[in-house]
Amino acid sequence: MSTSVSTPSRSRWIALGVIATGLLMTVLDGSIVTVAMPAIQQDLGFTPAGLSWVVNAYLVAFGSLLLLAGRLGDLIGRRRLFLAGTAVFTAASLLAGIADTPALLVAARFLQGVGSAMAAAVGLGILVNLFPAPAERAKAIAVFSFTGAAGASLGQVLGGVLTDALDWHWIFFINLPIGVAALAVAVAVLPADRGLGLSAGADAVGALLVTAGLMLGIYTVVKAEERGWTSTPTLATGAVAVLLLAAFAIRQATARRPLMPPRVLRSRSVAGANLVQMLMVAALFSFQIITALYLQKVLGYGAGETGLAMLPAALIIGAVSLGVSARLNTRFGERRVLLTGLALLTVLLALLARVPVHASYVTDLLPAMLLAAGFGLALPALTTLGMSGAGPDDAGLASGLFNTTQQIGMAVGVAVLSTLAAGHTGHALAGGASQAEALTGGYRLAYAVGAGLMVAAFAVAYTLLRESRQPARLPDDRPAVPAAA
Prior knowledge:
- By secondary structure, this protein is mainly α.
- It has one domain (about 10-200, about 255-465): MFS general substrate transporter like domains (Growth Hormone, Chain: A), CATH 1.20.1250.20.
- Helices cover about 80% and strands about 0% of the residues.
- The protein is built from 19 helices and no strands.
- It is globular and about 65 Å long.
- GO terms for molecular function: transmembrane transporter activity.
- It is found in: Cell membrane.
- Its main location: membrane.
- Keywords: Cell membrane, Membrane, Transmembrane, Transmembrane helix, Transport.
C-alpha cells in the first residue's frame, strides 16, 4: 500500500489534528444528544420507545459498518474514505438540525452513524502510517486517545450548555463549521494513498454477512432492555446474528480474498487488546452514564450542572493522556501502563459501588472523578498494543476492528447494566424503599458489576498481552507496523 510517511513533520501533526477532530465529532455526537433527549421528545412528540432511536439509529449504523469501512479504507484509500465519511456526517448533521419530525431526525441520525463509521474506521490506520517512529507514534496515539476519552465528557457539558442556552437543534448545527473546516484542511494535508485495490479483498459475500450480523447483533442488544433478554424476539434476532457472524468466520477461512484475513485475529496483541477493550468500555458505561443519571435523578442536578460535575474526569484524562502517557509507555512499556490504568479504574468503580443516597460531591464523587486518570493511562497503551500486530496493508482493518469492539462493548454495557440497575430499582420500590434509595441501590449494583468487568479486563490483559518494544510480526512472518515503544 502506498501510504506516504515522508510527509513534512509540520503537515503530519496538522493531519493528526484533522484526524482527532473527526474522532471528536464522532465521540461528541454519541454523548451530546443524551442530555438533550427530554427537549427533543417534547419538541418533536416522540413516544418513549421512539425516543430511544435517536441514540439507537446512530449506534446501529456506526457499530455495524466500522469493520467494513476499515477494510474499504485499505482497499480504496484511507484518505478518500475519511473525506467521504466526514462529508456524509456533516451533511447529515445539517439534516438532523433542521428535522421537524421524528422520522426525519432518526433517518439523519442513521446517516450520521454511516458517515462516522467511514471516517472513524480509518483514523488509526492513517495515524500509524503517518508516524512510523516509535517515539512520535506514542505521542500521536496519546493525542488520539485523549480525544476519544475526553470527548464523551465534553459532549455532556456541551449538550447541557447548548440545550439550556439555545435549543436542541444547535447540538447538531455545531458540527457544520467543524466539519467544513476539517474537510478543507484534510484535503490539503492528508497524504494521498491508492489503496490495495478492490481485487485484493473485495469479498462481497463476506461484507454482506459481517455487516448484517453486526447490525442485527447491535439491534438485538439495544432492544433487549425493552423486550427482555429471554423474550422470543431477543432470542430470535440474537440467534440469527450469531449465525450470520459464524457464516462470516467460515467464509473468511475459505475465501480466496477474504475481507478480514485470518492472520489479523491470529495476532495475540490484536485479539487480546480488542477483548480487553470490550470489557473495559462495557464497565465504563457504569461510570459515564450511570453517574450522570445518579447526579440528576438522585442528587437533583440540572443538565448543565451534571456536565460540569463530570468535567474533572475529562480534564484529568486529558492531562494524563497528553502529559505523561507517552513517556510512561516508553519507559515502562504499554502492558505495565495498561495494567496500572485498569487497576485505577477498578478502584474508581469500587468506590462508586458504595455511594450514599445523600452524597457530597467533594468527598464521595470527586475522588472517583480523579481516578478516571486510569483511562488516560489505559487507552493510549491499549491502542498501541491493538495496532502493533497489524501490518501496513491491514492497518485500516485493524483500526476498524478496534472501533467495532469499542461499540460492541458500549452497546452491551448500556443494555446489561441498565437492565440490572432498573431491575434492582423495581424490586426495591416494591419493597417499600424511597425513590432515591431504590435508584441509588440500582446504580450501586451497576457500579459493582462494572468493577467486576474491569477485573476481568485486567486478568485478560495480564494473561494475553505482551510488551511491543520490538516491531511485532504477524503469524505468517510478515513484518508488522513498528509499535510504539
